[in-house]
Amino acid sequence: MTTLEVDVDVDVAVIGAGTAGLAAYRAAVAQGKRALLIEGGPYGTTCARVGCMPSKLLIAAAEAAHMLQAAPGFGVHPGVIRIDGRAVMARVQRERDRFVGFVLDSVNGIPERDKLRGHARFTGPQTLVVEGEHDTHTTVNASRIVIATGSTPIKVPMLVNGGPGVITSGDVFELTDLPGSMAVIGTGVIGLELGQAMARLGVRVSIFARGGTVAQISDPEVLHVASKALGADLDIRFQNLIVDAVPDGAGVRLTTRDAAGFEQIERFDYVLQAAGRVANVGGIGIEHTGLVLDGAGIPLFDRTTMQCGASHIFIAGDADNERTVLPEAADEGRIAGDNAGRYPDVRPGLRRTPLIIAFTEPQIATLGASYRQLCAEGRPKFAVGTVSFENQGRSRVMLQNQGMLRVYAEYGSGRFLGAEMIGPRAEHIGHLLAWACQARMTVDQMLDMPFYHPVVEEGARTALRALHAELTRDAAGFVPAGDEPGE
Ligand SMILES: Cc1cc2nc3c(=O)[nH]c(=O)nc-3n(C[C@H](O)[C@H](O)[C@H](O)COP(=O)(O)OP(=O)(O)OC[C@H]3O[C@@H](n4cnc5c(N)ncnc54)[C@H](O)[C@@H]3O)c2cc1C
Ligand SMILES: NC(=O)c1ccc[n+]([C@@H]2O[C@H](COP(=O)([O-])OP(=O)(O)OC[C@H]3O[C@@H](n4cnc5c(N)ncnc54)[C@H](O)[C@@H]3O)[C@@H](O)[C@H]2O)c1
Fold it and tell me: Per the annotation, does 187 bind a ligand?
């Protein structure tokens, strides 16, 4: 590697031009500072290139196929269904490129002197070296630095010998046709979203889970309903371990072991690793920053200011491994860039009520405090209200009457704390409840809000009424009654 170093002095260096890094750059510039955005990979962001957008495009195609498959339940018979895999993938890629194009336009709008290509690495608390493919070309001296390096899919060690058929979510959207079969490793959000979409598009899919978790759900009752609902039309093998993978023609021969110790060998065209993502903080010389790190090598930081310790270094987005979803990356990037610009006068920024939505069907939404957090040692007992969507009016009308919502509130104050659900239109109910949570509403105040009829939101009202009853059980003897038909 040749060394042809140029020295650059800036106020704020931002490592990574993803969603968090772009927001950080803009916020630092808005503070009147000279900022430099350093990107080691392709521009375009994980969200647009290989994340949120292409996955939702694939899911949209799967929903179209599923609507046709579900139509006979209404007495509507669409005839022979033909899925053109090449056309499906072509649309995914065409629309994905359009979304990436918008990001590239905005990156093109950034002055050239504020951008640097290459992989950045700390050599000291205020110094970065930036390496291209063949050389270390630049030394950057920055009085403040934002780490916005994102995350990378975890490679499952038992799959290392599986050959080119072992892929990650980043590879799926490059396929030019739908495969015949796919094994998916992991029942997290990525495994379930992509696994279900592929299955609905006619791919033979088996999903392997080493445990019993389903996406981000922590409430055992919701988890039970979710395993049943998703398992009804998907081959999910819970409590299965991956033993080995070897190439088999153009595919992969996968060996797995179930809870009884029984080993099974199956062939798949592809094995998709969806076993989690790891923050990109290794290989960036984090040890030269002098920051205190946690067990995963991530600097300790304040989640309201994004400041690492009391230092001039800030962290944002998937790199901090806290809430690894797009809206949080954007918020954290803005806060980190703003505070890097203000440093040492750092200020807390707005952190919103947590909200995570998995675009499976039924959809999964969790918001506010999770069941697991509320059960943590030392926390006061909390009240729970439950609704099943099995007999919920509008859900039955739509033939989408599967799922459960559990809502949580504080005894005494009656304040709404959070919820977990799997069910129809969870993306919308999730927002409604997250807004109430952030507004610090009580359950009574939420029940004073309008609910139309017949809507899926009436299911949320039923759960809130049950929660209200639980909160007031010993006090007034109030018994909630659902008085609209099919509520
Ligand atoms: C398949 C999939 C589906 C998803 N779906 C959703 C969804 O529906 N909704 C949602 O909210 N979230 C979703 N997410 C999560 C969301 O995409 C991420 O949380 C978000 O994109 C993270 O943004 P970021 O800025 O932290 O990272 P990124 O956008 O990955 O940016 C990090 C950048 O840093 C660069 N970089 C890394 N190291 C260096 C270095 N040393 N020097 C220079 N540059 C470096 C990388 O090349 C990269 O461009 C999904 C993710 C995946 C993978
Ligand atoms: N709709 C969305 O908002 C959305 C969609 C996709 C991804 N994302 C983000 O991307 C992140 C990463 O997603 P993910 O699904 O890869 O991770 P995850 O952490 O959500 O799930 C990983 C899963 O893999 C399992 N696993 C881990 N190692 C395994 C092994 N060796 N064998 C079998 N199973 C194993 C885990 O038990 C877990 O079920 C998410 O946490 C989320 O923040 C969000």
Answer: yes
Domain-embedded: residue 225: yes
> Rounded distance, CA 448 to CA 470, Å?
17
Residue 133: domain span:
4-41+118-152+278-342
Please tell me the distance between residue 25's alpha carbon and the centre of ligand 1 in angstroms: 16
Show which residues are catalytic.
Answer: 453
Q: Is the CB of 186 under 6 A from ligand 2?
A: yes
State the CATH number of the domain containing residue 378: 3.30.390.30
Q: Can you read off the two tokens belonging to residue 259?
A: 């809870």
pLDDT confidence of residue 395: 97
Q: Is 190 annotated as a binding residue?
A: yes
Q: Which residues contact 227 (CB under 8 A, 6 or more apart)?
A: 212, 214, 236, 238
In this structure, the answer to whether residues 10 and 148 fall within a common structural domain is: yes
Is the Cβ atom of 324 under 6 angstroms away from ligand 1?
Answer: yes
Between CA 132 and CA 135 the distance in angstroms is: 5
Give the pLDDT score at 3: 63
Q: How far is the CA of 136 from the centre of ligand 2 (A)?
A: 35
186 is in an annotated binding site: yes
Number of domains in the chain: 3
| Residue 143 shares a structural domain with residue 166 | no
End-to-end CA distance of the chain: 69
CATH number for the domain spanning 169: value is 3.50.50.60
Residue 237 has pLDDT above 90, yes or no: yes
Q: How many other CB atoms are found less than 10 A from the CB of residue 170?
A: 14
Same domain, 206 and 295: no
The pLDDT tens digits for 420-445 are: 999 999 999 999 999 999 999 999 99
Q: Is the ipTM of this complex over 0.90?
A: yes
> Of all helices (H) and strands (E), which one includes residue 288?
none
pTM of the model: 0.96
Could you tell me if 283 and 163 lie in one domain?
no
Same domain, 256 and 336: no
What is the distance between the alpha carbons of residues 80 and 92, in angstroms, rounded to a whole number? 23
**Bridge partner list, 364:** 358, 422
Would you list the DSSP string of 188-221? SHHHHHHHHHHHHTT-EEEEE-SSS--TT---HH
Provide CB contacts within 8 A for 75, sequence distance 6+.
none
Q: Are residues 455 and 369 in the same domain?
A: yes
Ligand nearest to the CA of 319: 1
Average pLDDT over residues 463-469: 98
**Contact between 307 and 314 (Cβ < 8 Å):** yes
Q: Do 359 and 439 share a domain, yes or no?
A: yes
